[in-house]
Amino acid sequence: MEEKKKGFFSRLVEGLNKTRENIVSGMDSIFSGFSAIDEDFYEELEETLIMGDLGIQTTMSVLDDLRKKVKEQHIKEPAECKQLLIDSIREQMDLGENAYEFENRKSVVLVIGVNGVGKTTSVGKLAGQLKDEGKKVILAAADTFRAAAIEQLTEWANRAGVEIIAQQEGSDPAAVIYDAVAAAKSRQADVLICDTAGRLHNKKNLMEELKKINRIIDKEYPDAYRETLVVLDGTTGQNAMAQAKQFMEVADITGIILTKLDGTAKGGIAVAIQSELGIPVKYVGVGEKIDDLQKFNSQDFVTALFDVKKED
User: Fold this and answer.
1) From CA 137, how far away is CA 195, in angstroms rounded?
2) CATH number at residue 141
């Protein structure tokens, strides 16, 4: 398991290459290029962090913290600011212990997200990992608006070796959830993972649909632990942040799955999301394989982002 974790860390370092080039090389030239810590120095840092998709609000918080530490510690050399900056970014991301409570209780996990972000794939990968941990998992194909989503989830269920509850395209998602809850209870499943539709352009319908789904789970399975994860595409940067905010309006989001971090220069969005929205990033995806979705560790992320030496 430790080996697997190390393997993922090196993939994370590799996956964040583009982001690192975007942020770190810019920062290094600032730290080495300035001879004094002045307003120009802070302005250059601000621009580099915003370009790396940390977002304006997070960048301001990080730089306010840096200014404070520079003053308190009477730091004069720009080069000495690098570690302080890394520490500030770590602090921005620290939301305490990321809870994975749903793994240890009878639970229902709703997964939402717009088409194309890797939602169905994330459901499949999560199911496979929980199955490998000895959990009995059932999938619900409640994204009934796309036949492709049902087919794709069925394929993932087969690959992961878990059961799937599905109806044909166009059927009522709430009816699928009703059947899936009944199956989860009768078959003593540990975790029921529900793939739901994410049509943000039609927010009112989405809200009604999620309300209906939640009502059914509340009524039919009141003692189940509830988790609602939103899947966001890391390559879309600030657009992912906007999506997260919109989904927060229609659902009680408990965590985020951030996908496609391996192909983007916008990996800084993980910092912005945790810092600005206060919702933990619980999983990150850095590839196509089933074990390329892993629990998110903010310490590891910042270490990989800056490619600093990883402490054991």
Assistant:
1) 13
2) 3.40.50.300
- Looking at the fold, whether 224 and 108 belong to one and the same domain comes out as yes
d(CA 165, CA 185): 13
Taking the model in full, what pTM does it have? Answer: 0.86
Q: Are 261 and 16 in contact (CB under 8 A)?
A: yes
Within 13 Å, how many C-alpha atoms sit on residue 21's CB side? 7
List, for residues 121-149, the tens digit of each pLDDT value: 999 999 999 999 999 999 999 998 887 88
| CA separation for the pair 120, 196 (Å, rounded) | 9
* SS3 of residue 216 by DSSP: helix
| Strand ranges in 166-215 using DSSP code E only, listed in sequence order | 191-196
Taking 50 as the threshold, does the pLDDT of residue 50 lie above it? yes
Residue 240 half-sphere exposure, CB side, CA atoms within 13 Å? 32
Domain that holds residue 74: 2-93
Residue 169 belongs to a domain:
yes
Q: How distant, in Å, are the alpha carbons of 125, 193, 301 from that of 138?
A: 13, 6, 31
